[in-house]
Amino acid sequence: MNQIKIAKPILWSYFQSTCSWRVRIALNLKAIDYEYRAVDLLKNKGGEQFSKEFTNLNPKQEVPILFIDNYLFTQSIPIIEYLDETRRHGARLLPDDPVKRAKCRIIAELINSGIQPYQNANVIKKINAEMGKDKRKDWLHFYLNKGLNAVEEILKETKGRYCVGDEITMADLFLVPQVFAAKRYKIDMSIYPLINTINSELENIDDFLRAHPYSQPDFLRI
Ligand SMILES: N[C@@H](CCC(=O)N[C@@H](CS)C(=O)NCC(=O)O)C(=O)O
Questions:
Q1: What is the CATH number of the domain that holds 197?
Q2: Ligand 1 centre distance from Cα of residue 206 (Å)
């Protein structure tokens, strides 16, 4: 009998990258075993994402990248949607109900395009260089608070135990890493009670804990 050999999935990740963390949670929730390839975003002042080898894999020079089913995917949202569409077991990350699905994508997008880009390593590097380190705090606090306010508002309407109702969805995979990053940047999280409550529900779930930066092979206290 002929057997088709399917290679083990490979995730290019950095322990502290919130975008990689989203995908790590999805892989855990879907019980997908994978090989972890660390990409040090800060190494040699430039970072391994700028190497020729990595740029060939992702011209945008960012993690995560996921190799799965013999395809290479970038961008956490399509990666997570692909996993959900091809693996129907485990948590359903995109609800069947079209309204819930849209709300879930809104929350993911508020964080994906409305918050994370402003705190991205290459953006902060440029802010430091062109505006000075003092301005960095104002920049981060302005954009993170603007985005988190919008998330807190939509949660008033969508929340159950988690971001959208009582089942874990893609929105939750975006929330937990973003809260961690906001705390690192010393955002006052006490003004976001719904985000805090939902984050506390989620952060101790085993599949989330195993995806946490502190549990990754490249974890470094920096
Ligand atoms: N929209 C992309 C964003 C990817 C991204 O910005 N990744 C960050 C880490 S969270 C990165 O690799 N940054 C490298 C850099 O800024 O040089 C996604 O969701 O995957």
A1: 1.20.1050.10
A2: 25
pLDDT tens string for the chain (222 positions)? 455 567 899 999 999 999 999 999 999 999 999 999 999 998 766 799 999 999 999 999 999 999 999 999 999 999 999 999 999 998 899 999 999 999 999 999 999 999 999 999 999 999 999 998 889 999 999 999 999 999 999 999 999 999 999 999 999 999 999 999 999 999 999 999 999 999 999 999 999 999 999 999 999 866
| Residue whose CB lies within 8 A of the most ligand 1 atoms, among 21, 120, 173, for a mutation test | 120
Whether residue 64 has a cis bond before it, omega within 30° of 0: yes
Let me know whether 163 and 76 are in one domain: no
In a domain, 222, yes or no: no
Four-residue CA torsion sign, 61, 25, 40, 122? positive
Q: What is the CA radius of gyration of the chain?
A: 18
Which element (helix H / strand E) includes 38?
strand 35-38
Q: 60 is in which domain, residue-wise?
A: 10-90+210-215
Q: In this structure, is residue 148 part of a structural domain?
A: yes
Domain count within the chain: 2
* Ligand 1 first shell, C-beta below 6 A: 17-19, 41, 47, 49, 61-64, 75-76, 112, 120-122
Q: Whose CA is nearest to atom 5 of ligand 1?
A: 62
Report the atom number in ligand 1 closest to the C-alpha of 122: 16
